[in-house]
Design goal:
The strands form five sheets. Strands 1, 3, 6, 7 and 9 form a five-stranded antiparallel beta sheet that branches. A four-stranded antiparallel beta sheet has the order 2-8-4-5, with no helix packed on it. 15% of the residues lie in helices and 27% in strands. By secondary structure, it is α+β, with helices and mostly antiparallel strands. The protein is elongated, with a radius of gyration of 52 Å.
Length: 284
């Protein structure tokens, strides 16, 4: 089944026109296939002369050469022009140019006659694919370019070393499982440290004792208070007793109001009972 690979329309003048890029040409297409052009020359009239050319290369590194040329003169009895298919791959192009007469609007398409054809690759062709140099795999979006870009290191070198991410606990990776004796089909059949484990869902007395001992050993014991408590440093039991003795001597006839006997104010001795007009407080 043929595939319409390139199509275009152009008012062709004395500028040689590429039928693959629809720009001035010739271009150098490297898409391999068997191609056949179809050019509608119905607009060509008496006095007109047009040139159709096919270019290509023997090898990709060679200079582009002229393969074939066709000259169209005057009105055509069969205006839809074509030629036999050509197998092309290295820098090829079909071009159209006016040699004489009037510029004419011409349309065309180039069909790939190999589209949909199943081809069995020879062993040599398959090997050539595997032997393609990575430096040649540069087409963006291709499988070859994807492999070259992403498979850029030895697989065996990945995770050869491990860098601990910031904020994560240190990770340790064992090289092998210490012992697989008690692991069968992914199930641990016997674990030595749990041979006394209960079956009723509670810890045994021995296990409770072990847990209590371990928890007690890990619980910090508060010693004497050191450091700042308000402005007090190094408070001892004797200090606390002395403070208590003083506070115990306070009397509170009315709740939260200490009973006091005022003897002086600002180091000035005073007298009086604090009764307004009759016995006011006053300096001695």
């Amino acid at each position: 089944m043929a595939l319409e690979l390139y199509t275009g329309t152009e008012t062709v003048s004395t500028t040689e026109w590429s039928l693959t890029t629809d720009t001035s040409g010739p271009d150098a297409d490297t898409t391999a296939g068997t191609y056949q052009p179809f050019i509608d020359l119905n607009a060509v009239a008496a006095g007109d002369t047009f040139q159709i050319r096919l270019y290509g290369k023997a090898r990709s590194a060679d200079t582009q050469r002229l393969i074939q040329e066709w000259i169209i003169t005057g009105a055509q009895a069969s205006p839809l022009w074509t030629c036999q298919p050509y197998t092309l791959m290295n820098g090829w192009d079909f071009t159209l140019k006016k040699l004489a007469g009037t510029d004419r609007l011409i349309t065309w398409d180039i069909r790939d006659q190999t589209a949909g054809v199943s081809v069995a690759l020879t062993a040599t062709a398959v090997q050539a694919i595997w032997d393609a140099l990575t430096s040649a795999l540069t087409t963006v979006g291709s499988i070859g370019k994807l492999i070259v870009t992403n498979l850029d290191a030895l697989i065996s070198s990945r995770m050869a070393t491990y860098t601990q991410p910031t904020g994560f606990l240190a990770a340790t990776f064992p090289t092998t499982v210490a012992s697989t004796t008690n692991i069968t089909g992914g199930t641990i059949t016997t674990v030595t440290n749990l041979t006394n484990a209960p079956t009723a869902g509670d810890l045994t007395a021995t296990m409770k004792t072990s847990v209590t001992t371990a928890a007690t050993a890990a619980t910090p014991v508060a010693a004497s208070v050191t450091g700042a408590v308000g402005s007090v440093t190094g408070l001892t039991a004797s200090d606390v007793a002395a403070i208590k003795a003083k506070t115990d001597s306070l009397t509170f006839t009315v709740a939260n109001q200490a009973d006091v006997n005022i003897q002086s104010v600002n180091d000035v001795s005073i007298t009086g009972g604090g009764v307004e007009t009759t016995d006011e407080w006053r300096p001695v």
